[in-house]
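U., I forgot to send this yesterday:
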Amino acid sequence: MADIRENARELMKGFCRVCPVCDGRACAGEVPGMGGLGTGSSFKANVEALAQLKFNMRTIHAAAEPDTRTELLGLPLSMPVLAAPIGGVSFNMGGKVSEEDYVRAVLSGCKAEGLVGCTGDGVPPFIYEAGFAAIRALGGWGIPFIKPWEDAELYDKLAKAKDTGATVAGMDIDAAGLITLKKMGRPVGPKTPDKLREIIDKAGMKFILKGVMTPAEANLAVEVGADAIVVSNHGGRVLDYTPGTAEVLPAVAEAVQGRIPVLVDGGVRTGGDVLKMLALGADAVMLGRPFSIAAMGGLEEGVRGAVEKLRGELLAAMVLTGTPSVAEINPHILYGSR
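Result:
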């Protein structure tokens, strides 16, 4: 993985520094690129919120071989992890790997390791076309995410997403004010509850709403028929000065009360971070930048290596907190929990 990261650093020069600690400090304001918007406060808040959480270490127990398997929306997963939807290799990552090769690497690497990858959307069209083609080539094994466009483009892309064979689709509603799309003359916008209900009904697939940061909007997502939500501030790339996702996750999960799965992304870098998010109430966790760096630096091999490293870290953290299975993760593994 050290060689893969070094290769990624060279290929992504000027777009991502592949820092030893990916915390948003060196790349603040670099959008397009891999940084956070404005001061980078939201990006940094994601990482800091996770870093403040500590584990209760336990070693007197029988949880020697934890079970990381789970299921999400009918998709069996070897561990509760997904590759977040990230696209735009040319203007976010330097373009020295093609969009097609990049997305194939993410999806194929995830599938080989028993995970599922999500694909992104954007301008120009080859971004979503590459994602759809990769999902189709894998027999529908992937989750296509569509941005909150106006009707004609939105429904056209949802129909094409369904044609890939995928059983789950999503909308990253946290992209409603994405500055890069506005600069390209293709603005996106927020959706009313009635509009979201219409979109979900017409999609004809299980549907994820990504970009929920408050309990009130989590309840709205349930009410409009979403099958799952993602607690996300779009990696800190759309609004400066939001809290970290780990800060808001417990209240969101409490509001949902198990009615639909709650996913989360933002600042997750290690298997330990995955365990922290699960302990806070998430059913599964999305990783963005770590998989992007792995794919840029080593294509499918890089992604598989990143997954293996993550799995090893998760297993070690579960053993050392006395956690026998994903189903038995609870807040008490975190220091200071009640």
